[in-house]
């Protein structure tokens, strides 16, 4: 049975010949004219009905130009009906199943090939016919090339070769069609290009297939010119003259000939003939390029791949999956038809495609679920990119007829349309290359999948994507498709589709917030182990130290763009978030107000930041490891770039038109202003989620203008966790403020005065979200929302708390100000952040009415806001006026210094604000405290609220803070069991602590304790590896001075004895000093690796307790005896940096020593200095924390640390034998006096036996803690001393001259 084309087209669904048991009859035609219909573009093969005007697109695996305009019968076929609306359909058939009408014995292909074989046999019998290969064409420039005026006389050429590439057709509307075929010779080292020009030659394009041999007859040579200059030669296929035939293996051997040799003598004779003008014309002909060229090695870099389409990913961009291994992108393969995509199961062969690798972290690759392939030690996605030189041949059609329209594939997900549609149009309009295309898709996919739930306005999100994608390669040259010469003839040098010449393409990625931690920490080159730097400037306990890692990110150094919504959460902290997760955000700023000027809820881009990971994991009593991390981002306010307004679009803000004198203002007048329209033009036709967002934003419109008050914020207490009566936990922050009445501008009477009030911000009511917008000294408006359907006023919301209720003993307590629990469902806090919706307020000052006394007292008793340096607060004696104040803008001497008045339990009277650099952080053991519900649920509370340390009983945090430019330190303690984990307080952070209370320890050391009202503000994150310390300003001191400055007795003692009491501890200077000394001896050195889980020694990279996830850490400390010529002292070195400096180990050898120690587990050296000199008496605590856990033997001589038999004892002996001079920076370590201390201990004396009968008392050597060690150059030091001496002499001479001149002048005056 035969079917007409009309009947086939009338089918409503796809069908096949196996179902109909019929053949299709029609006429094969090729469209040779311009047609605006994309379904009938020029060069397309159609099958026309014999009786009607119906036609259908025919997709075949092979074709021959002799079949054009012939009537055929197709026995095996598939009719694909893609879309009923657009009437997209086609027929798939193999050329082996196409027969001449009425003749089913031989297929059309068999008949045509048989005819061509006969024609090739006849070629061999034609006399004087030479068929050249491509390498022979290199010698034809003298024989065959002629000038433009002689082209009619040139002899035609016959060429044989293999088709290596078949570029796409150049179909420019209004111009004749043109396409090219590249031939290579038998050896494959030469190639020539054949040019086909004219619409009548379009039927030949489907004939040629890559890697097939052809012979071309009667070709002509032409020159490709650019700016009228010949750049390359080629062959021209002339219509109605040239012929081509396909060769099989047998015919290739038959046709393979060698062209007759070119006789140079004949050429010389031609040159001698003719006049001078003809010779010049011949010389011009010699410079014409030959029709063939040598192939470069880069021309073979194109890939040929054959596979089956296993998945249709995105046909609009030509993205298909082949063999479950690779994907394709045929967007720049202009012969690819969007109307007629390939179907799953089709076997295709891609010739001359670019094979590129794209990293596994690409978002668009994850969305496409692209397969991965291993390349060495990493995995990557392989993508085959088609260009203008690519050719795709269909090898086999699938047997099924399933095919889904790419226009309706994503009807269930409208976001997919917004993902691909705009990019497709944008790349078509801008002629984007593949690098730009895939980058635009990466941006579009990342932003939509990051923010489709956070940014509920689809129109806003599309606009945001368009802003970023439009920035990609705006000035890329050359533009795709505008330079066919380079794309076709010089493709090995440049390709306008794929600009990169590397085998992989690195995309600028927009990672999810949930992937930032893993993505940055896996790059070990950019990570810094802060724990290695902690404690190197003083003593610390390794087992209680927090393991901290910092990863640096700079957008300019890596192709990562970090974007997210910056908003506050119910725990009162800032976060950067998207649809995948959130990370706490610490914003650094020099000005305290800058950090509060963020537009919360808007989209930001972080250009540079530090990612911090604090490991708070611990080991449970059962031995299992609890993994607990605190990850957050630290960035400067300058590196936060505002990208788009999201939530702040509908937000209302306030502004005060005049400068406010808070001591005189009595209220405010409100100006009524009309709200401006939304500048972002939010789409009102969004889905229900977008309407919900608009309803939330509309709260700003429901502010009651008659129920508003102005608040001046005085103090803000950090959030404290409390346990409520309903067995729940709640974070609460108390805010102290002054309330001022607000009236409309047409009302001048104000019957209320300023009053102190308290605001309570709670995590239960989510009002802690307002906390990041508040700071002491700011002005905010508190308004009542009108959607409560009541007539309440804002002042009625405040409640007076009766103190008698909480005072059963009737103690005299100050009254509690009116208090308000802020509820965002009822109240709205309006800040001064500039927005499009602004309300103006005018202050009204007092006229003859005095400020209420209570308000005056509040402003007059505000805490001291001065910020001191560390050196100012660690002194235990009243110093002179400080010159190290951070902000010394008060001329009052008494107010410039912290109070030295002590109150009970060694506490000082006033609280202080201290600025310094954190050098150490860890946990400290705390005195027993009754455990409550917070301790019992420590881990749950940390994961939910970020409060505490995550472990019950681990309640106190320790910080060692160093002066900004010197080495003096102070210890600060914080009770963290009910407070949020302090973010940003890591080594290298420049921090200001507010409201610290000072305390003097038993050893006379000043330390600080954080109160519930204390808080810390990080202003800068320094690199702990490259801090600048002004060592020249550190005072020098002799070791003998440490003994002289000690207080031997207490003059105030009633018994007038010389024995010190335990309270008398002011006998040493806590400040850091420097001294020039030598290493007398090394008492002990400890090097070992410790398990991060159980604390035991790690040997051979294995923990003795078999911890599965053991994170080892290297520990080093040492004790040495130093001497400066005046006295000796015992110096304690903590940290690998100081210990390796002591041992004179070069930086290049450190890793080798640490690897050797890992093999032994622990290496310890101990000398017999103490026993020989009767150094210890068994009653001191020096070196108590130097021995590693479980160690009970000395270092052996065979424990080799370096090659050549270098052991730890040899290194220690080498240090003492070299006699090098050092500049040592240290602080004195005080001795702890016990209540039952003996007289000798209180006098810092020890008994030393001279012989068996006599004992003498000697002064104990002072103990110091080393914070820095520098090797001194004796020659340079000598020159410095000589320069100082010379300067001193010069100064003395000037003083003598001035004094003599003054004496002589006074004598002259007396004589007069």
Q: What topology emerges from the helices and strands here?
A:
Layout: E1 2-3, H1 5-9, E2 15-16, H2 17-20, E3 23-30, E4 45-48, E5 55-60, E6 71-74, E7 78-83, E8 88-93, E9 98-100, H3 108-123, E10 131-132, E11 157-165, E12 178-184, E13 190-197, E14 213-226, E15 229-237, E16 243-247, H4 249-255, H5 264-272, H6 276-286, E17 292-294, E18 303-314, E19 319-322, E20 326-329, E21 347-359, H7 363-368, E22 372-375, E23 378-385, E24 391-396, H8 414-430, H9 434-451, H10 458-469, H11 484-488, E25 504-505, H12 513-521, E26 527-529, H13 530-533, E27 547-554, E28 562-568, E29 574-577, E30 582-588, E31 602-606, E32 608-615, E33 618-619, E34 625-626, E35 629-636, E36 640-644, E37 652-656, E38 665-671, H14 688-697, E39 703-716, E40 720-723, E41 729-744, E42 755-762, E43 779-785, E44 819-821, E45 827-830, E46 837-845, H15 853-860, E47 867-869, H16 870-873, E48 907-924, H17 933-936, H18 938-945, E49 956-962, E50 969-975, E51 989-1000, E52 1006-1021, H19 1039-1044, E53 1073-1091, E54 1098-1099, E55 1102-1103, E56 1112-1123, E57 1128-1134, H20 1136-1142, H21 1147-1160, E58 1162-1166, H22 1169-1172, ...
Parallel strand pairs: 1-3, 5-8, 10-11, 13-15, 20-23, 21-25, 30-35, 37-46, 38-41, 42-44, 47-48, 50-52, 57-64
Antiparallel strand pairs: 2-7, 3-4, 3-6, 4-5, 6-9, 7-8, 11-12, 11-14, 12-13, 13-17, 14-15, 14-16, 18-19, 18-21, 19-20, 21-23, 21-24, 22-23, 26-27, 27-32, 28-29, 28-31, 29-30, 31-36, 32-35, 33-34, 38-46, 39-41, 39-43, 40-41, 41-42, 43-45, 48-49, 48-51, 49-50, 51-52, 53-56, 53-58, 53-61, 54-55, ...
Helix pairs in contact: 8-9, 8-10, 9-10
């Amino acid at each position: 049975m035969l079917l007409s084309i009309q009947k086939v087209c009338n089918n409503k669904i796809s069908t096949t010949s196996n179902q109909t048991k019929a053949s299709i009859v029609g006429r094969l035609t090729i469209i040779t004219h311009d047609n605006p219909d994309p379904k009938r573009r020029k060069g397309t093969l159609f099958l026309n009905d014999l009786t009607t005007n119906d036609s259908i697109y025919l997709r075949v695996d092979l074709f021959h130009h002799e079949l054009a305009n012939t009537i055929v019968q197709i026995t095996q076929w598939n009719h694909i009906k893609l879309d009923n609306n657009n009437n997209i359909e086609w027929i798939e058939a193999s050329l082996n199943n196409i027969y001449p009408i009425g003749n089913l014995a031989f297929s059309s292909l068999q008949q045509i090939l048989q005819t061509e074989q006969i024609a090739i046999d006849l070629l061999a019998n034609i006399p004087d016919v030479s068929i050249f290969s491509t390498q022979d064409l290199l010698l034809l420039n003298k024989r065959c090339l002629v000038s433009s005026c002689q082209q009619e006389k040139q002899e035609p050429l016959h060429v044989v070769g293999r088709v290596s590439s078949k570029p796409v057709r150049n179909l420019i509307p209004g111009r004749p069609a043109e396409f090219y075929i590249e031939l290579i010779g038998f050896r494959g080292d030469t190639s020539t290009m054949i040019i086909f020009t004219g619409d009548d030659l379009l039927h030949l394009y489907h004939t040629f297939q890559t890697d097939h041999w052809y012979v071309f007859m009667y070709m002509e040579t032409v020159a490709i010119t650019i700016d009228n200059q010949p750049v390359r030669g080629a062959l021209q296929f002339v219509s109605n003259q040239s012929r081509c035939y396909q060769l099989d293996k047998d015919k290739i051997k038959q046709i393979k000939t060698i062209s007759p040799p070119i006789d140079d003598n004949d050429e010389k004779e031609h040159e001698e003939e003719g006049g001078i003008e003809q010779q010049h014309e011949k010389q011009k002909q010699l410079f014409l390029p030959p029709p063939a060229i040598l192939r470069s090695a880069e021309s073979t870099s194109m890939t040929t791949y054959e596979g089956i389409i296993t998945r249709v990913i995105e046909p609009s961009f030509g993205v298909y999956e082949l063999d479950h291994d690779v994907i394709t992108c045929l967007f720049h393969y202009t012969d690819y038809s969007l109307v007629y995509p390939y179907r799953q199961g089709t076997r295709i062969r891609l010739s001359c495609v670019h094979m590129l690798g794209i990293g596994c972290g690409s978002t668009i690759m994850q969305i496409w679920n692209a397969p991965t392939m291993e390349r060495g030690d990493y995995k990557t996605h392989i993508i085959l990119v088609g260009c203008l030189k690519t050719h795709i041949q269909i090898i086999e059609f699938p047997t099924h007829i399933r095919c889904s329209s790419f226009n309706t594939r994503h009807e269930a997900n409208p976001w997919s349309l917004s993902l691909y549609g705009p990019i497709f149009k944008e790349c078509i309009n801008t002629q984007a290359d593949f690098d730009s295309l895939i980058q635009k898709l990466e941006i579009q996919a990342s932003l939509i999948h990051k923010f489709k739930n956070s940014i509920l306005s689809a129109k806003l999100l599309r606009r945001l994507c368009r802003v970023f994608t439009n920035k990609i390669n705006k000035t890329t040259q050359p533009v795709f498709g505008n330079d066919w010469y380079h794309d076709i003839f010089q493709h090995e040098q440049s390709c306008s589709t794929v600009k990169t010449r590397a085998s992989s393409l690195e995309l600028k990625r927009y990672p999810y917030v949930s992937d930032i931690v893993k993505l940055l920490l896996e790059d070990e080159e950019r990570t810094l182990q802060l724990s290695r730097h902690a404690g190197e400037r003083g003593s610390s306990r390794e087992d209680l130290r927090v393991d901290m890692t910092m990863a640096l990110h700079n957008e300019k150094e890596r192709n990562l763009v970090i974007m997210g919504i910056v908003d506050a959460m119910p725990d009162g902290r800032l976060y950067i978030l998207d649809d995948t997760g959130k990370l706490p955000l610490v914003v650094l700023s020099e000005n305290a107000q800058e950090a509060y000027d963020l537009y919360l809820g808007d989209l930001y881009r972080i250009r540079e930041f530090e990612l911090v990971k604090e490991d708070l994991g611990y080991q449970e009593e059962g031995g299992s490891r609890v993994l607990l991390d605190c990850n957050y981002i630290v960035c400067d306010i300058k590196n936060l770039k505002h990208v788009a307004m999201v939530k702040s679009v509908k937000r209302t803000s306030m502004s005060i038109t005049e400068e406010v004198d808070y001591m005189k203002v009595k209220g405010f007048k409100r100006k009524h202003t009309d709200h401006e329209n939304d500048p972002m033009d939010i789409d009102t036709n969004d889905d229900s989620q977008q309407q919900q967002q608009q309803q939330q934003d509309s709260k700003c419109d429901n502010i009651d203008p008659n129920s508003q008050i102005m608040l001046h914020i005085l103090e803000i207490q950090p959030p404290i966790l409390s346990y409520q009566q309903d067995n729940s936990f709640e974070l609460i922050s108390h805010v102290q403020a002054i309330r001022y009445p607000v009236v409309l501008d047409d009302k001048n009477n104000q019957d209320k005065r300023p009053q102190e009030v308290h605001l309570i911000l709670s995590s239960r009511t989510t009002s802690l979200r307002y906390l990041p917008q508040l700071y002491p000294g700011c002005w905010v408006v508190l308004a009542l929302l009108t959607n409560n359907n009541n007539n309440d006023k804002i002042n009625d919301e405040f409640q007076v708390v009766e103190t008698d209720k909480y005072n059963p003993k009737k103690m005299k307590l100050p009254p509690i100000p009116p208090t308000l629990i802020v509820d965002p469902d009822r109240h709205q806090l309006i800040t001064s952040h500039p927005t499009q919706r602004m309300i103006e307020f005018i202050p009204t000052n007092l006229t003859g009415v005095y400020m209420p006394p209570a308000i005056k007292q509040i402003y007059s008793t505000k805490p001291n806001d001065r910020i001191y340096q560390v050196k100012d607060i660690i002194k235990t004696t009243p110093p002179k006026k400080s010159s190290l104040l951070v902000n010394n803008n008060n001329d009052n001497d008494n107010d410039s210094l912290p109070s030295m008045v002590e109150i009970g339990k060694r506490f000082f009277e006033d609280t202080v604000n201290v600025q310094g650099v954190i050098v150490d952080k860890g946990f400290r053991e705390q005195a027993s405290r009754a455990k409550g519900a917070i301790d019992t649920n420590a881990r749950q509370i940390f994961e939910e609220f970020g409060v505490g340390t995550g472990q019950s009983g681990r309640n106190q945090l320790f910080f060692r803070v160093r002066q900004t430019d010197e080495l003096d330190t102070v210890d600060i303690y914080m009770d963290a069991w009910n407070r949020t984990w302090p973010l940003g307080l890591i080594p290298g952070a420049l921090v200001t602590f507010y409201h610290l209370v000072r305390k003097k320890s038993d050893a006379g050391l000043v330390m600080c304790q954080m109160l519930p009202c204390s808080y810390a503000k990080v202003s800068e994150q320094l690199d702990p590896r490259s801090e600048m310390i002004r060592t020249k300003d550190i005072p020098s001191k002799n070791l003998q001075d440490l003994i002289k400055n000690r207080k031997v007795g207490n003059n105030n003692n009633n018994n007038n004895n010389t024995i010190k009491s335990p309270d008398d501890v002011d006998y040493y200077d806590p400040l850091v000093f420097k001294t020039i000394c030598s290493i007398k001896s090394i008492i002990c050195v400890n090097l070992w690796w410790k398990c991060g889980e159980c604390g035991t020694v790690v040997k051979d990279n294995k923990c003795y307790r078999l911890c599965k996830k053991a994170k080892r850490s290297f520990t080093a400390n040492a004790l040495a005896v130093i001497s400066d010529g005046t006295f000796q002292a015992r110096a304690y070195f903590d940290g690998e940096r100081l210990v390796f400096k002591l041992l004179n180990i070069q930086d290049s050898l450190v890793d080798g020593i640490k690897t050797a120690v890992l093999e032994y587990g622990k290496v310890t050296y101990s000398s017999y200095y103490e026993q020989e000199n009767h150094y210890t008496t068994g009653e001191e605590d020096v070196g108590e924390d130097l021995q590693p856990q479980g160690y009970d033997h000395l270092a052996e001589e065979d424990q080799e640390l370096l090659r050549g038999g270098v052991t730890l004892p040899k290194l220690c002996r080498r240090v003492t034998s070299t006699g090098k001079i050092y500049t040592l920076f240290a602080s004195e370590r005080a001795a702890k006096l016990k209540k039952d201390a003996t007289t000798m201990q209180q006098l810092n004396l020890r008994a030393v036996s001279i012989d068996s009968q006599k004992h003498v008392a000697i002064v104990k050597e002072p103990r110091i803690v080393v914070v820095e060690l520098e090797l001194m150059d004796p020659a340079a030091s000598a020159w410095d001393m000589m320069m100082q001496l010379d300067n001193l002499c010069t100064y003395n001479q000037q003083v003598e001259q001035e004094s003599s001149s003054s004496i002589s002048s006074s004598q002259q005056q007396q004589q007069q």
